[in-house]
């Protein structure tokens, strides 16, 4: 299977599985407990039908949207995800360049493998920094100041990782950062020699925002679940979020909001946006999907802050449904991570281009020429 054979999300996933050693593939692919929420994040879209209109004159389609004061040419963006140079040696460099080509936002994790300084010098597309609230206040201050100095447009505080989810696939495969060989994974690494060659020769694997402060995940092997459970501050509360918002002084979002009550509090503390997200089903298994929660959150705060639906998107029609509910934009990690693993920047560009093509085609078939024309009149919910 080659990149040119990848025509959809599932194809990129298959090629990524061929390219990556098993522990690393399953780190991307896995989720918490029985992975019920992970599956529901996508299957939720199947419970809603699209009702198209015709004879609307749809030769010109405008997919642009505005979030956090920035106009994007696409109504979706690349969510911040950790450890990207484990999936392809170019990592965040590849994703950032692809996002810039399509003029959409690129999210960078505090657990990124390329620094905010390098990313800022390389691309000028809108950029979001994903902030993890560590016990080490010096680390927190460093991340904030570096993102601010690098002229990032948005800070997103992740609020759904107060402890690590039970990611059983990682326990079985022995996945850690940095990766380590085990008896059970040796064959998988050995049968994918190009991954190992690239890992050893394409620049040292680092976590540049963390390594001056902590060893875990940088020079000491650690699972992500263990990192969250031991390094992040479990006393984090609304006062901490409000202080961080004030200290940042710009567009500020909470990533991982799933209830109306919390969405309203986000408005109260000065947020300009929220990501309705359950961390890709990787934290609390049994929680609802972002799409299932989207309508009530949009109805509560959608006129006050930007509401973004994050997670589960595998098709342009999925995005149409979330945008019709009232999301200002859609976002996801796996929607580009499999493509990154499959073929680096070329893979991410192909994936983003396919979503764009799907959206343009689907908008025409819906009888809509711009995102603002999508609304709930074009939807029917099967379970109502």
Give a brief rundown of this model.
The chain is α/β, with parallel strands linked by helices and 384 residues long. Helix content is 42%, strand content 13%. It is globular.
Report what the structure shows.
With 384 residues, the chain is α/β, with parallel strands linked by helices. The protein has a single domain (3-381), classed as Alpha-Beta Barrel (TIM Barrel). Helix content is 42%, strand content 13%. The protein has 15 helices and twelve strands. An eight-stranded parallel sheet has the order 4-11-10-9-8-7-6-5. The longest helix is centred in the C-terminal third of the chain and has 33 residues, at 334-366. It is globular and about 60 Å long. The relative contact order is 0.21.
Instruction: Give a short account of the largest sheet.
Output: 8 strands, parallel
Shape type: globular
How are the strands of the largest sheet arranged? 4-11-10-9-8-7-6-5
Residue fraction in strands: 5-15%
Strand-pairing-aware structural class: alpha/beta
Number of domains: 1
Discrete helix count: 15
CATH fold descriptor: TIM Barrel
Distance between the termini: 42 Å
Average pLDDT works out at 96
CATH class: Alpha Beta
The CATH superfamily is known as Aldolase class I
The name of the CATH architecture is Alpha-Beta Barrel
Q: How many β-strand stretches? A: 12
List low-confidence stretches.
none
User: What is the helix fraction of residues, given as a range?
Assistant: 40-55%
Cα radius of gyration in angstroms: 20 Å
Instruction: Sketch the topology as an H/E string, one letter per element.
Output: HHHEEEEHEHEHEHHHHHEHEHEHEHE
């Amino acid at each position: 299977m080659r990149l040119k054979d990848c025509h959809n999300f599932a194809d990129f996933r298959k090629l990524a599985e061929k390219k990556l050693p098993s522990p690393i593939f399953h780190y991307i692919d896995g989720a918490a407990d029985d992975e019920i929420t992970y599956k529901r994040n996508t299957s939720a879209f199947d419970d809603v039908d699209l009702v198209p209109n015709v004879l609307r004159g749809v030769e010109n389609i405008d997919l642009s949207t505005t979030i956090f004061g920035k106009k994007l040419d696409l109504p979706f963006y690349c969510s911040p995800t950790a450890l990207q140079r484990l999936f392809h040696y170019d990592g965040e460099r590849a994703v950032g360049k692809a996002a810039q080509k399509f003029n959409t936002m690129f999210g960078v994790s505090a657990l990124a493998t390329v620094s905010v300084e390098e990313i800022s010098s390389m691309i000028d597309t809108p950029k979001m920094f994903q902030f993890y609230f560590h016990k080490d206040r010096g680390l927190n201050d460093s991340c904030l100041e570096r993102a601010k100095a690098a002229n990032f447009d948005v800070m997103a505080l992740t609020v759904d990782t107060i402890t690590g989810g039970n990611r059983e696939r990682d326990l079985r495969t022995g996945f850690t950062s940095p990766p380590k060989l085990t008896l059970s994974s040796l064959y998988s690494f050995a049968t994918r020699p190009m991954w190992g060659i690239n890992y050893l020769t394409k620049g040292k694997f680092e976590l540049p925002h963390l390594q001056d402060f902590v060893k875990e995940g940088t020079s000491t092997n650690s699972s992500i679940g263990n990192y969250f459970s031991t390094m992040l501050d479990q006393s984090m509360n609304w006062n901490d979020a409000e202080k961080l918002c004030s200290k940042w002084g710009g567009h500020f979002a909470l990533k991982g909001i799933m209830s109306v009550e919390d969405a309203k509090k986000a408005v109260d503390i000065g947020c300009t946006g929220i990501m309705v997200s359950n961390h890709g089903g990787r934290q609390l298994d049994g929680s609802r999907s972002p799409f299932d929660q989207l309508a009530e959150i949009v109805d509560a705060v959608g006129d006050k802050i930007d509401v973004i639906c994050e997670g589960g998107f595998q098709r342009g029609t999925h995005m149409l449904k979330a945008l019709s509910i009232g999301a200002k934009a859609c976002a996801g990690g796996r929607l580009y991570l499999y493509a990154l693993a499959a073929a680096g920047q070329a893979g991410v560009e192909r994936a983003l281009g396919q979503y764009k093509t799907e959206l343009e085609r689907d908008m025409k078939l819906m009888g809509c020429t711009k995102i603002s024309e999508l609304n709930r009149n074009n939807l029917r919910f099967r379970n109502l």
